[in-house]
Amino acid sequence: MNLDYTPEQLAYREEVRAWVDANRADAPALHGQWTDTAWIAGRRAWQGALADGGYAGVTWPQEWGGQGRSPVDQVIVDEELVRGGVPNILDYIGLGMLGPCIMAHGTSEQKQRYIGPMLHGDEIWCQMFSEPAAGSDLAALRTSAKAQDDGTFVLDGQKVWTTNAQFAEFGLCLARTNPDVVKHKGLTMFVVPMDTPGVSVVGLEQISGDAEFNEVFLDGVVLGPEHVVGEVDGGWACALTVLMNERLSIGRDVTGFRMDVDRFPPPIAADAHARRDPEVRHRLGDASVDLLAVRFNGLRALTALQQGQVPGPEAGLAKLTMVEAATRAADLVVDVLGPSALDPTSEWYHVVSYLPGFRSAGGTAEIVRNTVGDRVLGLPPEPRSDKGVPFSQTRSDGAVEAR
Amino acid sequence: MNLDLTDEQRLLRGSARDLLAGRGTIAAAREAITDPTKLPDLWSVAGEMGWAGLLVSEDHDGVGLSAFDAMLVFTELGRVLASVPLLGHLTASVLADRADGALAAVLADGTRRAAFVAARPPGDVVDGWTVERETGTGRVPAPVLAADGTLTGATAWVPDAPGADVLIVAATREDGSPVVVVVEAGDASVREERTYDATRSVGHLTFDHSSARELDGLGAGDLAGAWYLAQSLLAAEALGAVETALEMAVTYAKDRMTFGRQIGSYQAVKHQLVDVLKARENAYSLIVYAGLAHQDLPEELALAASAARAGAGKALDLASRTCIAVHGGIGATWEHDAPLIFRRAQISRRLLGGTDDATDRVAERVLAGATT
Asked: C-alpha dihedral over B17, B23, B25, B31, to 10 degrees?
């Protein structure tokens, strides 16, 4: 058991550090508004620079412009970018989840066309899965893709929680091609050019007022068959690949929203009274215990990844702990600093505003508990009234009439 | 980087599990509530398995394994609620190993049994080395070694003190500086306390000008290391009991039917069990951290061991209560094993400063880290 890096890994770290030092001047600000086009342009260019340097797609196969390196090397890159105070890649959704799905299920034309520009940040991608009435129960989505006689598909519906859609060139969209079979067997994955007529994007302001997410409306969007990824009606397999790759990225800090154990103590340490207050200390200690556990959960997962194991659904538990503990710690910091810490100029304004929604990001806390309970503890699943029922026989709200 | 167990560690864990299986330790834990003589004697087993000398160097006839290895054994002990006085013995043996080879050697083969009489290392709020009182939350100064070589003072709630042959005591000199002394058990007053957890041997110690021998060359670092070793072992032991409680509750939730389906299919039950698994995963991660700290990160030992203690303690509280809750009323009766784990949790969380003190230590360390 050790935390040691190999000589090769140490040398790689030096190499990354030197690159960051040499290129820091070109980096955009670490944080910005997601609606600030100038900042986004800077982030795109910076992703291009990272890709040229070999620091985007670190674990991607070399065949597709990646470095074919280990998950530990990816962590080394992430850590050195944090240390250098510069942003990571902009399109972590494309590189982390959607690109690997296209590599696994796409045609060779699709791979040739999309992967390179994705890697360099020339074309940003968004994930069009969730809908207003289909989040935890993703396969219940209602966006329809009707096959036409000329071989095209017409998409109608609405997506939501679509990160980066406001500036993305492409979306990977899960839509229903066959309503007359059970819900997850009639879905197809599409590449949607975001400038196609009928696609409109509306920002979704969150608690902080920033609009990190969007709603995407699809109104008679016509797509040729070359936009289908994988098989028609075989979209669920593609979706599972995306979700599996999402797990691989758990523990990576690509958004710059660092909820590490080190983040919370400084304002308390700076307050001579608070740092000796037993209740403050108990609350800080209790949250810090859990945040330390999250750190070592991540290192354990990294050990498994290194050995070629695929993370199971239990990886989601670390995120639950992180959100719960960070919420307690952030509340404590604001209790100590007072209400002025909720001024928009304070970093804590953003942390406090971010956490309630983050609880549901990538799967609500409830669906994570269901999945882990069923798949890890082997508990029986809850009965599903729509099991085995063709989607077209469910009501518009997803309910199934008593039979 | 690799946080997996080595093949040797898997073997050690497996052999401990095999050896403890089928010894009826859980049934004995119940019988011992009314009749303490029902506890099986596992000390001879510990001697045969080399556990008594697990942390004594090979130079002194021990096995020379790591703190993390000992923690693996403790998880197996905790899993079956085994009553064996290794917590006091192993921590004492580490101190003997550093200063008194002859003593270490007789501890290593189990011919003599030791107990460590711990003191809490000074902190940023409470200065000085302190020990438990019999009642109340306040702590009192550790026993004092007088210039004439005798020890005076009292330490309450000392694990594994009853029946120990020799006591290795965290004490201070009259000027408050820490010192490690050896006291023959016959030279101290040891009053056994029968506790809520019948598997846990605990005693209240009084020294009244007791004859004491200083272990030369040991200081604050050694005493603090022994304290954090004890915290780590308690954490590891709690983890084992958490795993038993979870397994028991999951099995029942798959079996028991209400309203035509298994209770484990209800989210209200399932989510409680997942929360225990989450606490278990967190506790194990922290135990790995503590193991690494003992081995490679001495400057993080106080943080890591305290976090492990607090995290595993939290997990055991949750696991033992959830296990009872999932079983319903029967889970709260003597018919069932669940209350035995609950009894374990109730005493464990209050030993050696308790989980609350460990939590405070975590706060102290992260605040200190933020200041420098």
From this structure: 170
